[in-house]
Amino acid sequence: MTPPQLTVGRLVERMRDTLELEHVAPLHGLERVIENPNASSPGLVLAGYVDRFPAKRLQVLGETEITYLKSLDPDVRRRNLTKFFSFPIPCVFIAPAGVPPFVGNGFGTDLDRQKDPEHLPYVRAGFAVVAYDVDGELANPDDVTYEQVQAAAAAFKNAEAGMLNARHAIDYVLKMVPAVDPKRLYSAGHSSAGRISLLLAESDPRIAACMAYAPVTDPERRADEIAPDAARYLESNLPGFRQFLKSSSPLRQVERLRCPLFLFHAEDDSRIPIAESQAFADLLKKTNPQVTFVRAARGDHYDSMIREGVPKAIAWLRSDATRSASLDRLPAAAAAPGRTNTRRRSAR
Length: 348
Known about the structure:
single chain, 348 residues, six-stranded parallel beta sheet
């Protein structure tokens, strides 16, 4: 039997009395696994030099280090400590929801002002969050023509149901944000964006774990149920439309999802029946035993995710089982870069 991993929290509990340890910060980071048995002092990283910093070791700040920090100008001290604490952090990629399964969407410029935004709990828990747009957004979804729907659907199809946007977002973060841990990239999404989260986990081996809240797992059936007229129009006027729905269906390629999955759905969901998630989970378990399916008693389509789904998903991400399983499966290869837009719109 593999012994449990040593986390920061366990080390603090074991050595609290011996070393007279006291936790003075908010209780974040206690779940972090200690991967290196060695300890060292930060050294030159406190002066801003980080090129040879052994970030995976335990870091001990003694009297010398504290005295040096106190001697620095406050702005310099803050800048150097920011570098010190920037190694490394997990990252959650979230796509926008609230649209039919044949067009894209954006978050909008009011992302930080929406009520109960789904990305903030991850941020508060210490995760980096990337909210990316998906090509094919309708400018005015409440007043559109069939021609506008066709143009949006064509853009969404060309973006491979948002996969090019997601891969571009991942490529950008890995290149421009060195503090993000490339071994802990997670996809998340709700409803129509839950489909994108599942597709990303099925198609990009860099995703270490996936969260999907009340997801659309069968876009073919969903299109015919909620927008049958538009679906018939697109089938007649957009070449390859029906095949595109098939190829972008998480249900049709479920065997490609190899990473751990957190699946969440409320019993009283009035938009997408919980039976769809149950069927997806049952099918996936035949090829991937790393499935956690959480059923909420109430909360309907969105509120259940905010109140119960995301908090439980964060706890699941922090669990030793999820961390070890996701790290064990990571390959060396990465997917090809893609294209995305920069507009954003509020998620629904």
